[in-house]
Design a protein that fits this description.
The protein is built from six helices and six strands; from the N terminus they run E-H-E-H-E-H-E-H-E-E-H-H. The chain is an alpha/beta fold and about 210 residues long. The protein has a single domain, classed as 3-Layer(aba) Sandwich (Rossmann fold). The termini are far apart. The structure holds flavin mononucleotide.
């Protein structure tokens, strides 16, 4: 693993109060030492993809977006589900990143996907589509999803995360992505396991306290 492992988060929601954004920020917060975690915040201002805008006409912000992907070690996509699939804004960004043919910055790039929705399946269909598209582009896609169903119940009115198992789940997903990209060290794995045990204990203590 490189000395500093860089993850680029991409969130497929433009909503100010987006749950997927909240979870991406939480993923950034649980990233252990040695991981630089940036989140791309300009998906909504990327122009619509057109083959007429390729080559010398490629907009500057698309070049920047591609450069951000190129310079990271792995990407983590958080996606909502719109009508059974990914939001158009996310597909648009992935289409830009896939070009020009043979020079895609996503080719061979380790990638993981997660998703949240207030529904029962946690954006599972959208995640499956994002993974399918990333695979078509040539990314090295983590063979598992991370779903957050009924996500509106996971936060209180002040946006405090109520579910203590979310941190370890995000940390586990990140660890799997890092392993896919080059392998986490045994020390990091045992730290993660320890962190996961602590959070599970806290969650169990909270359940006992609430039941009392
Ligand atoms: C156009 C549209 C279509 C939607 N379709 C689905 C859907 O197919 N499945 C689902 O679980 N939720 C669906 N939803 C609800 C979203 O999951 C919900 O708005 C969610 O909070 C979006 O994620 P975000 O909070 O990160 O923006 C849809 C919402 C919109 C606006």
């Amino acid at each position: 693993m490189p000395e500093t492992f860089t993850v680029l988060g991409i969130v497929g929601s433009l909503k100010k109060t987006s749950f997927n954004w909240k979870l991406m920020r939480r993923a950034k917060a649980v990233a252990t030492e040695g991981i630089t975690f940036d989140v791309f915040a300009y998906l909504g201002v990327l122009p619509y993809f057109s083959e007429d805008r390729e080559g010398e006409r490629t907009p500057r912000m698309i070049q920047d977006f591609r450069q951000r992907i190129e310079s990271c070690d792995a990407i983590l996509v958080a996606t909502p589900e719109y009508n059974g699939s990914m939001p158009g804004v996310l597909k648009n960004a992935l289409d830009w990143a896939s070009r020009p043919p043979g020079e895609s910055v996503l080719d061979g790039k380790p990638a993981a996907v997660m998703g949240a929705s207030p529904g029962r399946y946690g954006a599972a269909r959208s995640q499956a589509d994002v993974r399918k598209v990333l695979t078509a582009i040539g990314a090295e896609v983590l063979d598992r999803e991370l779903s957050f169903p009924r996500v509106h119940e996971m936060f209180d009115d002040q946006d405090k995360l109520l579910d203590l198992e979310t941190g370890p789940r995000l940390a586990g997903h990140l660890a799997a992505l890092i392993e896919l990209a080059g392998g986490a060290t045994p020390a990091e794995e045992s730290e993660l396991a320890e962190y996961s045990r602590t959070c599970q204990q806290l969650a169990s203590d909270q359940r006992v306290a609430e039941a009392a």
